[in-house]
Amino acid sequence: MRQDRRPYWVKKNYLRFRAWYTQHFLKPACDYLGDYPTFMKPWYISISGPNIEIGKCATVIGEPDNRVKIGVWGADEKSGRIKIGDYVLISPGTRISAAHEIIIGDSVMMANGVYITDSDWHDLYDRSSRSNALTPVHIANNVWLGDRCTVLKGVSIGENSVVAACAVVTKDVPANVIVAGNPAVVVKTLDPNIEMKTRADYFAEPEQLEKFFDGVDKMVLQENGFFNWLRALVKPNKSD
Ligand SMILES: CC(C)(COP(=O)(O)OP(=O)(O)OC[C@H]1O[C@@H](n2cnc3c(N)ncnc32)[C@H](O)[C@@H]1OP(=O)(O)O)[C@@H](O)C(=O)NCCC(=O)NCCS
User: Fold this and answer.
1) N or C: which terminus of the chain has fewer CB atoms within 10 Å of its end residue's CB?
2) Rounded to a whole number, what is the distance in angstroms from the first to the last CA of the chain?
3) From ligand 1's centre to the CA of 164, what distance in Å?
């Protein structure tokens, strides 16, 4: 479909249902979920295990073929934690798996298929038992994790740094650099004189932003008729 044929009120009710689903099923799975969450297709987002916190204005996008999985699986049922800051973007297919501790800062952006883990999950020599090494992962504010990159156990990534697509990060990354490759190495340094705009800036006034998008929906969808929408669902044509 090239056009959104939904009448405004249908989309509005869809968004209400989506928000209800998030509050009813996903918020209770967190120790804390901040205000203004935008969980798209939240039925394809799984949050499991104890001690999971997600800050305000989180955008998390589930897709049927690319579920988001945020899970803590500690040594016992109360241990392990994941703390995610404010204004983060978590794209489809992202997996965040903590045995001990994964801390993610504000405004961090995760592209499709990012994998973050703080454990190897199995011992090298005893494959029947889990690895108990404490190897936390810390990702600082405003880091951008590119498409399908992997961040492995014990890694810290400094503020503003970028992990290129498909990179595998095995060692600490300083602030304000780009790393790429497998294993990831520094390929570029960010210019500190260029002002950085972050997701925190974008969400500075979340209520206003919501109103703005509602206004856009109203403008774009208000002419859409109910029966034409049904027709487009069952018998779409090229103009749809
Ligand atoms: C990280 C990234 C943004 C950097 O872009 P850039 O600043 O234009 O970087 P450049 O193209 O100048 O690359 C710098 C060097 O790193 C190398 N490089 C860049 N991306 C790489 C990658 N994914 N894997 C391996 N090497 C890579 C380049 O070949 C270049 O090497 P050279 O200096 O030997 O020529 C970009 O490479 C990238 O990975 N983009 C994908 C972003 C993404 O996932 N978006 C999804 C939506 S959130």
Assistant:
1) N
2) 6
3) 5
DSSP state of 139: E
Residue-wise pLDDT tens for the chain (240 aa)?
Answer: 788 999 999 999 999 999 999 999 999 999 999 999 999 999 999 999 999 999 999 999 999 999 999 999 998 889 999 999 999 999 999 999 999 999 999 999 999 999 999 999 998 899 998 877 889 999 999 999 999 999 999 999 999 999 999 999 999 999 999 999 999 999 999 998 999 999 999 999 999 999 999 999 999 999 999 999 999 999 999 888
Distance CA(67)–CA(238), nearest Å, equals 30
Q: Contacts by 219-228 with C-beta closer than 8 Å and gap 24+?
A: 220/4, 221/4, 221/6, 221/7, 221/8, 221/11, 222/8, 224/4, 224/5, 224/6, 224/7, 224/8, 225/7, 226/7, 226/10, 228/5
For ligand 1, atom 45, name the residue with the nearest CA. Answer: 146
| Among protein residues, the one whose CA lies closest to atom 48 of ligand 1 | 111
Domains along the chain with CATH numbers = 1-30+205-240 (no CATH), 32-197 (2.160.10.10)
Q: Which atom of ligand 1 is nearest to the CA of 163?
A: 1
Choose one of 59, 151, 188 to mutate for the ligand 1 pocket test, by most ligand atoms within 8 angstroms of C-beta.
188
